[in-house]
Amino acid sequence: MTDRPPDERPPAGPPAFGPPPDFWRNVRQEIVAGRQWVDRAVVFAYAVATGLVVVGFTLLSEAASELHAHGRSADGWFGHWGPWLALVWTPALTVAVLWLTRRIAPAAMGSGIPQVIAALGDDVDERRRGALVSLRVSLHKIWLVSAGLLAGLSIGREGPTVQVGAGVMLHARRWLSPSAGIDAHDLMVAGAAAGIAAAFNTPLGGIIFALEQLSRRRHLTHSALVIVSIVTAGLVAVAYFGNITYFGRLAVQQLDWGLFGPGLLVALVAGLAGGLFSRLVVVSMQGLPDRFSRWRREHPLRFAAGCAFGVALIGLVTNGATAGAGAATTRGLLEGQSDLPAVYTLLKFVATWLSAWTGVPAGVFAPSLAIGAGIGHDIALLTGVSAERAIPLIALGMVGFLAATTQGPITAFIIVMEMVAGHAMVLSLMATALLASGVARLLTRPLYLELAALLLPPRTGGQGSPSQ
To answer: Over the stretch 248-271, which tens digit does the pLDDT of each residue have?
Structure first.
């Protein structure tokens, strides 16, 4: 007998979780699951293939950039005529690239990230998805972007690598069994993340990029698939290039209170400039009722030639500093060794915008880092900060402009942190990315989502143009 009232029940015990897993039974199931192992081997093989393709893309694009730089230099093939011949060479090759792209791979136009985002939609049919992301488009994308770099346009390969990686991994679906449970969404996200991780040697940045910019699901059905693909593709890239950071290691990583004002100014200017750049790109691609948009619609090749001539003219003024992705210039700024024209940042901004406006396969990811580095460098000069103490401001400019342009602050600060080995600046990079992204939202919506909307059929509000 107890004194507990009859309607009072004893307190509930710990929740029942069931019996513990049967280890040996699970091992036997794994051993006999032959088809599952085949599916895993297929995914692993395509992850290796993604890494190899990224390595090949990197080598080809770098060779194209070096070839252009050599051709326009005073000791190149054309001697002192090299810089002037670029006024003809850049527009001519740009027109050729655009003409070929429109004929054989229209889905390869632009960055490639909007195409992947559009293809990830659950309501996109298989035919449309294959037109936007495929192995064929990926292979064409590689040499078309490299040709644009050979022309001297202000473009990068890192954004296009997202579409390239997604196309390679999506091709694995034809070899997977129906019981694999891996759909097109998971494969494209895994390939895109692996591509950008291998391109920048930023594995964590690749994962965050996939979750922040690409995935339409709160959780991936096979999150391990993304990680395995990133690790495998990254190991392939590291095996060839070595385990080095993209821009080396920051010489100075500490921000003292004397840099608080200049750092805040960098974040605000980068946010405004990145938001303006994003808005310009979207409006340029979408088109307005003005003579330039009408000219682009009616005479796309002539319009591209005009834009490319402007890029070549800017390259002539800056002695080629604005050509290509700008990685060498950015590295020089971070090392305090670069001697640039006072208007470099503005001209790189305009050259990148004009290059994107041509419609050729072109990424803006890496050029955004160069523009941001220029912003940090310019503000350091304006505020009287010494060259050595300006290095953290340059890193803040990189993360701020990238975050403002892409509206992906987490991706921006993690990628930049990994690229410069700036782990001591995590909080500063994070705060700058959030502030710059917030400022940019006052001017525009996310760049890649806006461009992806232009790829949707008219019934969903898009323009249905593959040129974006």
So the answer is: 666 655 667 778 899 999 999 999
